[in-house]
Amino acid sequence: MCEASNGIGVGLSAVVQLTVQAPVHFKVRSRKELVRRGSSALLRCQALGDLPISLSWRKEGSFVELQGRISIKNTSVPEGLVSELTIGAVRAEDGGIYTCFARNEFGHDQTAMHLLVQDAPAPPTDLAIQDCGSRRVTVAWVPPMLDGNSPIMRYLVRYNPIQDTWQGPSQEVTVDGGESKATLDELRPATTYGVRVVAENTLGPGAASQELRVQTDEEAPTGAPRRVTVEAVSSTQLAVSWEPPPEDRWNGILRGHYVGHRELGEVEGKHGYNFSEVPWLLDGKGQFRLDGLKKFCKYGLVVQAFNGRGSGPMSSEVVAQTLEDVPEASPRDVRCTALSSDKLQVSWQPPPESLVHGVIQGYRLLYEPVPMPVITSDQHDMLGPQTKMTTALTTVLHDLLKFTNYSVELLAFTRVGDGVKSRRNFCRTKEDVPGAPGGIKVLLETSDTALLTWLPPSNPNGVIVQYNVYVRVLEGTLQMDSRTVPHYSTSQLQYQLPGLKRSQIYEFWITASTRVGEGTSTPVARLRPSEKVSAGIASFGGLRRVSWRSDVRLECRAVGVPEPQRQWLVTDTPFNRLHPSRQARLAIATDGALLLSSAQRSDQGDYTCVVSNEHGRDHIIYHLLVQVSPAAPLLLVTGSSQHSLQLQWKLGDDGGSPVRGFVIHYKLEHGEWEETHVDGTRNTFTLSNLRCGTAYHVFITSYNDVGSGAPSPTLAVRTRGGIPAIPPPGDLLIVNSTAAMLRLDAWPDSGCPMLYYVVEYMGHRGLGSSGQAKDWVVVGRNIVPGKVFSITDLHPGSQYKLRVTAHNAAGSSVANYRFTTLTAVGGTVSPSLVMMETETEQRAPLHKDVKVVVLAVCSAVALCLSLLGLCFCLKRKANSSRPSPSPSLQDVQTNAAQDNKHNLARREQYYATVRKLPPSPATLECIPEYSEDIRPYATFHVPGPPSSETTKLQTFVYRDNDASPTRKSIGKSDYCRVKKPRPGDEYDSFGSESDTEPGTSSRTESSNQLDDGGNQGDLNRPYHPPVSRLQKSMIDSTYPGPGPDWSPPSEAVFPRRYCQAHLLK
């Protein structure tokens, strides 16, 4: 209202009504809205101003399309209009700038809302390794470009060994959001890890980055080998076996193991371990054999694994001892002392302890008289070679020969066997009184002179210094005289006593004396003098041993008056009647002795000297034994090993003299002969220290006092083992792009240790430009076995020829291979990466292939037999189809008519068809003519003679498309010929063309048999059909026809079959 007044009068006033029109506007021009992905977002704009107001929403300049998730709700308020835009299950693409436009009639305005959808951050990128060790790796990355509209709070670094899956729990390291690298500790060496980095904000962790594979460096193994066991294989070998450390402690690629050994005992602290390298064969268990060790010695053994960075800890020491062996030295300081005439004392010291090689179980003494006396069967235990065992260092030998020189040898033995014998020691038993002289004879040389002869003692027990001759004279019962006459000659063993009286009796006996004293006497010999001096022999016969080819003199001193006559008998044959060849080496001396020159084994036997005169006769017999060298022993090889041969032999004839020893001769196949002497008491021996897998020639000889005997047959034997085998290429070669590794440790040695290898290869083209083969490239001539050998600097994707020559003690073998290296990217050029050279280029020629030759010979033999069989069949067929001499037509027709009539009669009498006919005892059934007319094994009743009540059963065996074994085989074309029956004619007439071929008749076998003469038991006779054809009227008049219930068959084709009749009794 507006009022105006001037003070005069009533003022003036006017009321003015003002209407203000408010245009639409927003209080806030823009703002941000944060919402999590997946939740609902509500964008609200309130437009102020006069109504009516219209509102609209746009995103990035485009109208917002209403969908299922997006809705708009407008609400009027006093101040204006409120619009709410709701977005359900917000997605990342829903974020952006939303603009709310308002308009009324007075103006328009807009407000912008920046919708920020908060999400987990994107994965970091560009993962890289900054530092890498065996147990620590530093990984860096680039933060993600999209942080999910929320600051990154931290990074999660997750890592797992590559063999593990990411599905299980993984190890994790947390890094602050401001960092972009992390260090991973406590990793396993030589392990590939997969590393992923996850960024995390307030909304949670985002997606993981791409996997980064990190290979930690190798480290020396941290685990010791397990289950180490040691076994003694021999006296110089120990076999060690073990299991590798746990695989998680290998810390790299296991290259092998070191096997260390040291000698225990006095030198234990002086020496360390001696290590041997054993390559790892990837077979789960390690094995190694230590050779060249000391015998029966304790060793401490350890095993440690190694890889490319070094060796790991050693296993616990295992103590083992090599096996016992025989002593290598003989007892020392052997001494022998005579205690008496039959006792010797032997003392010694043990062998050096280092050469015993075991526990001494005792000592064995070998002693025998030297030279060996003649041994009779009852003296063998006392006079032959003897053995005594003892555990002491001294012993006394009892019951020895008196005053005899003995050789004594001594050896120590363990559980394994005897050791080395000591040198021979000789000692003699003491002297003693002698035994009685060996014999005494007293003869009348003349009527008043006595001749006394005797033999020396068989056991002189010392040096005979004199003989004592005792004489006693008796007259009746009175002793007239007694005297003792010393006889100092030890070679002339005779004594003459003259002046004998006939009335007296003379008695004689003799003793021998040594320096010790007088021995026992001989029996008393009596003599009564007489005028008649009978013939007698003063010499002594008995056993006489001589050596082969020695000259022999057999004495025959005769006395008597008159002088006796002598005669020598050789095995009861008088000397003068001997064969001239036998007399050639025999002669009689002037004194009557028999002389034999160059005695042979055939000369041994009885030699008799007979003397006689008119008063009497006497004789002596010599048993001559000719000692020769022993016969050849029988040698056998009872066993063998890689370095030894076990021999056993059997002695035949010893030649009449004890065998003193044996000599074993042996040599390599192309070497020099060697000898080994063996004691005569043994029959087994082991040849040791031989070469493995090598052929030897061995024979044995024996010797006695006469000499060496004949050799045994030479044996060709071989120690165990052989030349190296050829390994498969897959076991030997490992090929990559530029190198080939040879696992020489896997080469089979065939039982003989490998010595060395020679490795050669040829270039990938194999031929030079001139077409000549390139030279082999030698990469090693003395490669030590048991290692992995590499051939380097090869071309990728190329073919090579490889030649490896393996040598061991038995010889060498050459293996040829062909291999193809991988391509530069690791691919293969051909399917056969490695193959044996013999598979392609060294195949044997066909004429040397055993399989091909055998197959060709068998085929040729089969072809010849087939041709012979074919010729034989054709010949038989020609003979069977050869026509017989042609009779006249009239005779043929007459015979045919009679045969047919007779056959029809027999047929109706014995056979009937299978088709069911009216039963009538007086009517016979039809004969089965076709195979369809019978059934397999059908039984027919055959009536017998009227007076007989017995019944015979005849069985037809039906054979479909099969020839009878009693008949000629029938071809298929002839066997199954099909024939249509003619109208009104059910059966073929006899003599038709279809019946002219043997075996093709459509009738049954029994029918043909009847036509052939009626021999029921003869099924093998061929069928000869009649030449002429019988007329139908003849058949019709004989065959009564089918029964009333039989109907003619339809026009069908019936294949011919073959039937055989069997007669059942």
From TrEMBL:
One BP term from GO: cell differentiation
InterPro entries: DSCAM/DSCAML_C, FN3_dom, FN3_sf, Ig-like_dom, Ig-like_dom_sf, Ig-like_fold, Ig_I-set, Ig_sub
Domain Ig-like: 23-118, 523-613
Residue ranges, compositional bias (Polar residues): 880-898, 991-1010
Gene Ontology CC annotation, any one: membrane
CDD domains registered for this protein in UniProt: FN3
Bias (Basic and acidic residues) ranges: 974-985
Identification of the protein by name: Down syndrome cell adhesion molecule-like protein Dscam2
Organism the protein comes from: Cryptotermes secundus
